[in-house]
Amino acid sequence: MKLLALEISTTSSKAQYVDTKLGESTLLVERNPSSSDVVDVCMHAIQLGRKAAQGREVDRITTAGTWHSLVACDASNVPIQPLTDWTDVSGRIFCKGLRKDASFVEEYYRESGSMVHAMYPFFKLLKQKTDGIALTGRKISSLAGYLHYLLTGTIKETASMLSGMGLLSTSSIDFHPMAKALGCTISPICDWRDSSTLSKQGSRLLGLSEGIPVLPPLPDGALNQVGSRAEEPGIMTLSMGTSGAMRMIISEPWFSPIHATWLYRGVDNEFLLGAATSGCSNCVDWYKEHAFYPDVTYAQIEGALREDSATPIFLPFLVGERCPGWDDTRLASFHDVDASMTTSAFYQGVLQGVVANLYQCYEELLKSGHIPRTIKLSGGVLHSAFWKHLCCNYFGVSMHEDVQKQTSLYGALILAARSASEELPTHTLTVPNVLNPEPEMRDYYTKHYKRYRYWYEKTLIDSTQERSI
């Protein structure tokens, strides 16, 4: 079977062509254009798909994207505002005001599985409505939903994608009442198997024949479960890319008493319990860019690091906090700094701070009573031998390195095959490398986490206080 998958992630576009019979595979990854124009970003992904397929035959096309993007169109499906995603927290003051109403926070959390936070498309739309912008007549979709439209002429959204946008009910496969009250038009919910066909325009753009089935878009987080072969309870995925996230499938809804976790729908509408951090490799990239010369590589920096070095505490909230505190007004900061610390020590402190925030989320997930028997690690962290071992030692549990370079994209390919009642052959899989924690590092990271939690609590801003932003 010949498959083509297109994905638009936070910072890059990806395309992969696979011929399951011949065992051929072509993977292309490029950074997204520095544009907030919806069509520009989608066209970049489509051009990658054209290169990956190289005019070869394709039996199925599948599309994927991030969970929290927002595209607003007019009645003719022409975008009428710039693309926004989870990195846009411009509505944080608006959401901070909403979070003062404890009853509203509890109601929304239980209704949607999401927290009151500026990254969610629901609150971007609610702010516009509150500001007097009429939403009637607007068509709302995810970025991947619009990519699907450019290829097929039809906008389609799955329950999984809509739940991560803060629009879906936790009690049924339907929009929750607050989402319905927005007044905008949201695409009807479809099953991931409900494919459209490649249109004349899509055919011209991809250089492929018209009529090829195109699967509806699914979010990268849900696809990560599929690509990691984590489609049953007891397996947690921990993906560390631009942001960081951990997820596991559960049989019944669970809501954190302190709203520390989220609850979305997975590919087959199962419940995905998870937690995510806004600061991950974006924090590492930020520090490297500002502290080292451009020609210095990550490998050169990390070659001089020692895992038990004296480092500052870093709170990784460059774009606010997601889980567990959901404070989109939070700022990043360094603490416990002394004159002996070098730029390398600060770099290591950033790595540790990111993992500490993820471990904090992990503790909250365990309170659900769902203890993972396996943790599968994926994302850019796997390119760094130092960071992935640091992560394993910090958590103090064994982790399986994901064998796929692009896990969510691979998940999309698995589903494309399944849509034709096939499975990707086992020869595409390899045995994962297992990272085991070093017992001698336990005391070091226990002390680090205690320091991290001290500064985390110390820098909390009371809800009655105002922070100038």
Q: What report would you give on this structure?
A:
Helix 9 (220-227) packs across helix 14 and helix 10 packs antiparallel against helix 12 (343-366). The strands form 6 sheets. The protein has a 7-stranded mixed beta sheet. The protein has helices at 38-53, 92-98, 102-112, 121-130, 143-152, 159-163, 177-180, 200-206, 220-227, 281-291, 298-303, 343-366, 385-395, 407-418, 442-458, and strands at 2-8, 12-19, 24-31, 60-65, 71-73, 139-141, 157-158, 185-186, 189-190, 196-197, 213-214, 218-219, 235-240, 244-250, 262-265, 271-277, 313-315, 333-335, 374-378, 399-401, 434-435. The chain is α/β, with parallel strands linked by helices and 469 residues long. Helix 13 links the parallel strand 19 and strand 20 (399-401).
Outline the fold blueprint.
Layout: E1 2-8, E2 12-19, E3 24-31, H1 38-53, E4 60-65, E5 71-73, H2 92-98, H3 102-112, H4 121-130, E6 139-141, H5 143-152, E7 157-158, H6 159-163, H7 177-180, E8 185-186, E9 189-190, E10 196-197, H8 200-206, E11 213-214, E12 218-219, H9 220-227, E13 235-240, E14 244-250, E15 262-265, E16 271-277, H10 281-291, H11 298-303, E17 313-315, E18 333-335, H12 343-366, E19 374-378, H13 385-395, E20 399-401, H14 407-418, E21 434-435, H15 442-458
Parallel strand pairs: 1-4, 4-12, 6-8, 7-9, 13-19, 19-20
Antiparallel strand pairs: 1-2, 2-3, 5-6, 10-11, 13-14, 14-16, 15-16, 17-18, 20-21
